[in-house]
Amino acid sequence: MPTSFGFTKVAEGSKQALVDDVFHKVADRYDLMNDMMSGGMHRVWKDAMVSFLAPPRADKSGWKLLDVAGGTGDIATRVVNRSNETVSAVVCDINESMLGVGRDRAAKAGLSKLITFSQGNAEDLPFPDKSFDAYTIAFGIRNVPDIPKALREARRVLKRGGRFLCLEFSEVDVPLLDKVYDTFSFNAIPVMGKWVTGDGDPYQYLVESIRKFPSQERFAEMVREAGFERVTYRNYSGGIAALHSGWKF
Ligand SMILES: C[S@@+](CC[C@H](N)C(=O)[O-])C[C@H]1O[C@@H](n2cnc3c(N)ncnc32)[C@H](O)[C@@H]1O
């Protein structure tokens, strides 16, 4: 079955290696480029995601987060800080280069005991059933070749009563903003990427992959099809990003 790697059709089996190559290339400059590409907005959206998750503030029960495609650990760090360092988090990512940057950041922040880093594929998570209280994935799922499989894995590793949250670039629903956003994305982002990292191609992929991702409604349907209940979503910045939520009961 062919799948999309940005705007290019590739065999499903070859997509992951192409994605991995993108993130190996950008890992060192990933955090800087995130700020530049989004004008710092990714921080606001991630803060909003963690507020919506509302992790316990003073946990004594062993509450545990799994942040998949967690890269350099932005979501895990926020969740652990929000809990006053009383919960723990596992950052799972397929890419050792991204995990390496995350490990260093956690060590510098003194959070290595609470945040652990584990290499693994979202489609085949290396964790037992029902082992986490919450599952988050931020700007990660559009990179995964088989999204329905990753969603079923998310549900499998959650405990009953567990929460699924997915933050992803989405479909802009504000007239004019869509045109401005398109022009900025396709012109400025690959150029910025080339300037900062020396290679614009990974950023061309990032922009194209955003356009290929399903609409908010369609993705909500996919989350429901994976067995999640009470599925809702909210748009951020006119739909530039959207947060999908679901529960495992
Ligand atoms: C755009 S980054 C997002 C990183 C982080 N969540 C954030 O919001 O800053 C996408 C991440 O997805 C990871 N990824 C891609 N395919 C994956 C897969 N099949 N399983 C797990 N992680 C994957 C990449 O290695 C990369 O770190």
From TrEMBL:
Pathway field of the UniProt record reads:
Quinol/quinone metabolism; menaquinone biosynthesis; menaquinol from 1,4-dihydroxy-2-naphthoate: step 2/2; Cofactor biosynthesis; ubiquinone biosynthesis
Q: Which GO terms describe its biological process?
A: methylation
> What does the similarity note say?
Belongs to the class I-like SAM-binding methyltransferase superfamily. MenG/UbiE family.
Q: Which keywords does the record carry? A: Menaquinone biosynthesis, Methyltransferase, S-adenosyl-L-methionine, Transferase, Ubiquinone biosynthesis
Q: Mind telling me which Gene3D superfamilies this protein's record contains? A: Vaccinia Virus protein VP39 (3.40.50.150)
Q: Which GO terms describe its molecular function?
A: 2-methoxy-6-polyprenyl-1,4-benzoquinol methyltransferase activity; demethylmenaquinone methyltransferase activity
- Which Enzyme Commission number(s) are listed? 2.1.1.163, 2.1.1.201
Which reaction(s) does its UniProt entry say it catalyses?
Answer: a 2-methoxy-6-(all-trans-polyprenyl)benzene-1,4-diol + S-adenosyl-L-methionine = a 5-methoxy-2-methyl-3-(all-trans-polyprenyl)benzene-1,4-diol + S-adenosyl-L-homocysteine + H(+); a 2-demethylmenaquinol + S-adenosyl-L-methionine = a menaquinol + S-adenosyl-L-homocysteine + H(+)
Residue numbers binding S-adenosyl-L-methionine: 72, 93, 121-122
| Function noted in UniProt | Methyltransferase required for the conversion of demethylmenaquinol (DMKH2) to menaquinol (MKH2) and the conversion of 2-polyprenyl-6-methoxy-1,4-benzoquinol (DDMQH2) to 2-polyprenyl-3-methyl-6-methoxy-1,4-benzoquinol (DMQH2).
Stored PANTHER family? 2-METHOXY-6-POLYPRENYL-1,4-BENZOQUINOL METHYLASE, MITOCHONDRIAL (PTHR43591:SF24), METHYLTRANSFERASE (PTHR43591)
Q: What is this protein called?
A: Ubiquinone/menaquinone biosynthesis C-methyltransferase UbiE
Q: What class of enzyme is it?
A: transferase
In terms of Pfam families, this protein maps to: Ubie_methyltran (PF01209)
Q: Which organism is it from?
A: Roseibium porphyridii
